[in-house]
Amino acid sequence: MERRLTLSFFLLLLSVSTFADAGSIGVNYGRIANNLPSATKVVELLKSHGLDRVKLFDTDPAVLKALSGSGIKVTVDLPNDLLFAAARSKSFASTWVQKNVAAYHPSTQIEAIAVGNEVFVDTHNTTRYLIPAMKNIHDALFKYNFHNAIKVSSPIALSALQNSYPSSAGSFRPELVETIFRPMLDFLRQTGSFLMVNAYPFFAYESNSDVISLDYALFRENPGVVDAGNGLRYFSLFDAQIDAVFAALSALKYDDIKLVVSETGWPSKGDENEIGASIDNAAAYNGNLVRRILTGGGTPLRRQADLTVYLFALFNENSKNGPTSERNYGLFYPDEQKVYDIPFTVEGLKNYHDHRSPVTGNQHMTTPVTGGGGVSKSSSGNTWCVANGDMGKEKLQAALDFACGEGGADCRSIQPGATCYDPNTLSAHASFAFNSYYQKNARAVGSCYFGGAAYVVTQPPRFGKCELPTGTGY
Questions:
Q1: Which of 219, 264, 274, 409 could form a disulfide with 403 if both were Cys (CB 3.0 to 4.6 A apart)?
Q2: Are 370 and 446 in contact (CB under 8 A)?
Q3: Distance separating alpha carbons of residues 113 and 194, to the nearest angstrom
Q4: Which has the closest alpha carbon to 12: 284, 280, 389, 343?
Q5: What single DSSP character describes residue 198?
Q6: Which residues are catalytic?
Q7: Using omega within 30 degrees of 0 as the cis cutoff, is the peptide bond preceding 166 cis?
């Protein structure tokens, strides 16, 4: 029996068919808490939700044993306080690998070792030990013939960048380039490894909520931000941050280095001055991020760079210091109940909707700054849906076909000889169809997405003599 496709399901099919190999979602399993379930229960929790990648911050034997035979891919960590010993002594590195890797792999599928974490901001000044430690750990893996299966890297914070805005100006801190980054990137290239990056749009939004749109930070519909340096339009702060790192790599001629997002997340609760920290925003960020990653497509700068992304974090961790947000990044409460309901798999995305709540309190919503300034978007004002020409002809055409077919858009005006047939361009026709669908659906959240092929504007768009109408009655 013929059945009408929902928009979300269509977009999922469109995205998956357009990009054969999409990205991958994992989760950080931190344990700075005194009320967490046993490692055995945690493994069952991961499996029950389809999470097949986990990143640890240590090499706890109970956790590694519980993961044995689970089929879950594991990243382990050599903590910062061991960098000096691992750098100074090959025998220490060899013993560490024997006790913490060889004793479990391959039954526990260890796929990577994070040597240190955000070393450049570590107050104990361990930066100079990083490269020797990475090399010694890799040499130890070589002895066990694990060097091809297990990659060695080190997560960097975005503070390792000298410039991150606009994305095209991305560059590493000058004092780290020759001493750290070139040797590390050479090592990653030689060993076929990847650069780990911790990226948190929340921090950028929290500090700049007067100029950064909440929609832009949460992967929601927005007019986008045009990068004056490369001409690309960005529809999410996450993509802009990742492309700043890609630009920094390109500036040093390391375009071939792949990237893994080793941490990203959004807190579900915060102190009064932590603007944007809420359950609704955390659900939107992580849910829309999962959709963004699992439907593939890379970033505006690296369209084929499907990303592996580790959400931070599995649980709320009640023993962490710092502001309230630090204890509220969890996807789950310690009793294993979800803090908010989002999917982690392609199958789960079929029924996923980003449920926007009314804006209250300090959740500022303004249009992103684009060049000479932005326009404040009123929730009661008219908006239109137009095609994103950066997405490519195939995706635009597939979305246009859906809008005029199963989507039920009124596409009579773009037929040959009709009032909006000229200009006869894919972008103009798609914009008319997308806008018809958007208006017929009362400009509902999610009705101007089309897998990233469309976005909302606040000024009346015109194509030739054809001005796109607004209102639900056309």
A1: 409
A2: no
A3: 11
A4: 343
A5: E
A6: 118, 263
A7: yes
Helix (H) and strand (E) counts for the chain?
15, 17
Residue 58 main-chain phi, psi, to 5 deg: -165, -155
**Residues contacting 97, CB < 8 A, separation 6+:** 137, 140, 141, 143, 144, 146
Say what angle helices 393-404 and 426-440 make with each other, to 10 degrees: 40
Q: pLDDT for 294-338, tens place per residue? A: 987 789 999 888 899 999 999 999 999 999 999 999 999 999 999
Type of residue found at 34: N
Name 150's Cβ contacts closer than 8 Å, sequence gap at least 6. 101, 105, 110, 111, 112, 113, 141
Q: What does the alpha-carbon distance between residue 75 and residue 67 come to, in Å, rounded to a whole number?
A: 11
Q: Tell me whether strands 384-387 and 454-457 are parallel, antiparallel or unpaired.
A: antiparallel
Is the CB of residue 137 less than 8 Å from the CB of residue 144?
Answer: no
Q: What are phi and psi of 380, to 5 degrees?
A: -100, -10
CB 436 within 8 A of CB 409: yes
Summarised one tens digit per residue, pLDDT across range 58-107 is 999 999 999 999 999 999 999 999 999 999 999 999 999 999 999 999 99
pLDDT tens digits, 373-425 = 222 233 335 788 888 877 778 888 888 888 888 788 889 999 988 889 999 99
Q: Which helix (H) or strand (E) element contains residue 261?
A: strand 258-264
User: What is the rounded CA–CA span in Å between residue 248 and residue 226?
Assistant: 18
Q: Are 270 and 202 in contact (CB under 8 A)?
A: no
